[in-house]
Amino acid sequence: MLPAFGLYTHIQANRRRSAFLIAGLFVLFYALAFGLAILWRAWLDDGTGSFEAVMEAALRDSLWLGPAVTAGVALWVLCGFRLNTFILNLATGSSEADRAEAPRPYALLQGLCISRGMTMPKLRILDVDAPNAFASGIRPDQYTITLTRGLVDTLDERELEAVLAHELTHIRNGDVRTMMIAVLVVGVISFVGELVYRSLRDSPGLWRVSSSRGSSDKGGGGGRFAAILVALLFIVIAWQLSVVIRFALSRRREYLADAGAVELTKNPDAMISALRKIDGKGEIEGVPSAVMELCLDNPRSGFSDLFATHPSIEKRIDALVCYAGGHPVIAPAVAESEAPAA
What we know:
4 strands; mainly alpha; 70% helix; elongated; 342 residues
């Protein structure tokens, strides 16, 4: 198991790294806005303007567009902060659970919070078979841990405690706040990127006019066509980098939350066993992808694993074995299949 000072050093380093990445997301917003300004000016151009004229007009637009983007993003994030719990509960259909409705997870969560002097977050149960869990909330009065019914029924006492400790660590480390900002910002950038793509795809006339003008008048129509290409470059770069940053934010946090669960429970094998039981089974049907990004496991396989927001279960188990003193365990299904025939 990692020494306490080592774990908290990693947490502090990750917070600094996350702050840098979040700042990068907001910079990408300005790149996206500049790309849209170029695209707008190219769209308005009648074919007589040069590339330099289109770019200069877009730069002038950026003088007022920058503050407008700042205000719009701030308002969007503020609304997300205030309404995130309501939206998540509405999207998932979970219900709040008290001690009488969920005695086992309630008692375990209460014990973990008492051991760390924390205010106990709300407990909610999502009535689906998939074994999964996620933490939500920006402020102490919003903090919530949601467990699926499948998770509660699948895990034993020590495994369920480890999962609760994992989600509690996300709250303690401020992960929920960071991921909420990432989801809100990346969601807007992705929405704008897809909107631009669909608009250009459905307007082939723009490309034909621009390219034909470019072949006959390189100072006019050709400049417009070049400006459109530059605008698309800015938009695509902002779009793709925002997705990469979101992945980078998510993956490191899962390792630290696993380590935090071990620090709280002093039982790495319980976390390993819980991960084994949920491996590949946690997909919650009918919930937005943004909710799955908050979950204990967001199953991906094959090529799509390269773009997953979570490290694979095997990598997380390897980390727990290597750094937390856990013991690799064989999943029950594998153990049965490898058992010698009678």
